[in-house]
């Protein structure tokens, strides 16, 4: 089973690239982030035409997450996280798909920091930890996939100095990510690629793609029951270089049956 996470940076603007990628790589499950689409304007007919059922949690203009399943309809378990009833951001959706619990996550960016946006990021991460602990307690194969907006270590960025003041790699952001992992989640990409650069994001600015000045912020965290089934993990880097591509590349795992 191939499970991918893909921040599409606007599903309507990137729809040709998304459909192209689905057709060429044929993942079984896809977690999408940054739809920038309301629930009403999500391109369901196009997605179904590509052979995928879907659930989504949209928001006009920004945020938004979805889960796609090839030849099936994901069974929704939850949308949104507990802890802040006033939080209207569409950043989390969870479903059961092909016997695996899958969550699509679009974690807050947190910039500028310090400030209220960074505080919100850290609170959101703690709310995610709470839900993740509940999932672990169910002892099911589970994958928390998405754009975490966290650069976990210095090895996950092209230049530590360039990103030193960014919310994505502040000590507090990294500490909350480690706390999540230490619950018992496995970082799939680093399991298969333990050393060296393996980027998932390249900014549109300053020729970042051409210079390969990227970093790793798209992660798939596996419960013990899923980690035992891990066969492979990688990034579809070449798709980032296509015309009108997202600034992220799809990141994926393969689990055996």
UniProtKB/TrEMBL annotation:
Q: SUPFAM superfamilies under this entry? A: DNase I-like
What CDD domains does the entry give? ExoIII-like_AP-endo
The Endonuclease/exonuclease/phosphatase domain sits at 4-248
Its keywords, alphabetically, are: Hydrolase, Magnesium, Metal-binding
Keyword Nucleotide-binding on this protein?
no
Pfam families documented for this protein: Exo_endo_phos
Does this UniProt record's set of keywords contain Hydrolase? yes
Q: Which cofactor does it need?
A: Mg(2+)
- GO MF assignments: double-stranded DNA 3'-5' DNA exonuclease activity
PROSITE patterns in alphabetical order: AP_NUCLEASE_F1_1 (PS00726), AP_NUCLEASE_F1_4 (PS51435)
Protein name, please? Exodeoxyribonuclease III
